[in-house]
Amino acid sequence: MTAGRERIARARRWVVKIGSALVTAGGRGLDADAIRAWTDELAALHGEGAEVLLVSSGAVAEGMTRLGWTRRPHALNELQAAAAVGQVGLVHAYETAFDAHNIRSAQILLTHDDLSNRRRYLNARSTLRALGALRVLPVVNENDTVANDEFRFGENDTLAALVANLVEADLLVILTDTAGLYERDPRSDPDAAIIRHATAGDPRLAAMAGGSGSIWGRGGMATKIDAAARAARSGTATVIAPGSEPGVLGRLRAGEELGTLLEPSQEPLVARKRWLANQLQVRGQLVIDAGAARALAEGNRSLLAVGVQRVEGAFQRGEVVACVDPHGREIARGLVNYPASEVRRIRGRPSSEIETILGYVVEPELIDRDNLVLTGR
Hints:
single chain, alpha/beta, Carbamate kinase, Archaeosine Trna-guanine Transglycosylase, Chain: A, domain 4, 8-stranded mixed β-sheet, 5-stranded mixed β-sheet
């Protein structure tokens, strides 16, 4: 087993994306047998202790089938209508299949705004963390009925990558109707070789990617290459693998050379911190005591309310604040879990008192260490 494939075997948090062509058997309606087969595999991963999130396309394609449409419409309102009709059948199919394994599932509908707006980002992150702790398997899809821009990205590949960033996944698996990425289009060159291993974000990969997908989905290999590059920003490896191969997920976990493995160029923590650092625009400031400053600078710790002395600014939950020591030196920046008005009420108090003071608790930390970047010494 190669080092890259060993990484797959060690992965504890998986995001698995299944495309429309697979879910709907090329547009003939939901493929119940295939869905049961994939849920069997996902259930096996879940039973081995892995945390699994499923990103499934197919709502629009299933809606088209239910409405008797043979061509994917171009009008946004018709696409959204098809998604509304098809989403019902899609989520019911997965719920029924997971129930057979005594696994509770949850429907999560997101727009890209949910993952770019920092407050909504933290809301989504908290929800998915709670589901993971409860061992509930989320089924994630784009909220096609309200999103204005989803159809520009194609078959949820971009959404799957953003979800991988959101939950800091070890592995993103994109199941598709091809064997992986080829050096040239195998439809026009039968001798084209498959790429088994490469670095995500390598500009040469884009030249190898083919055109758009089928009438049932908008994705092609190019969107999958782009998704792998996005996922790599948080240190997530990506496998583009053939979804029709029996036992594909278990075989990947066992180290078999299936599909194309695209690895990040940086370790997960370094990659995520760099990704966060590139997002940061400060909306406020927290003056912290010497102990908290030392804990952040030296111990890779989260920031707790008890260490905050003063709050400056009118920031909202999910916005970026600077952490400053008693001498005015900036120590770090990060995404704050509570708005300024509430931080003022809980500053200097232990985490155990947050719920008593505010009437609720989102997170015990003001800033989680995974959402915090050191900026000074």
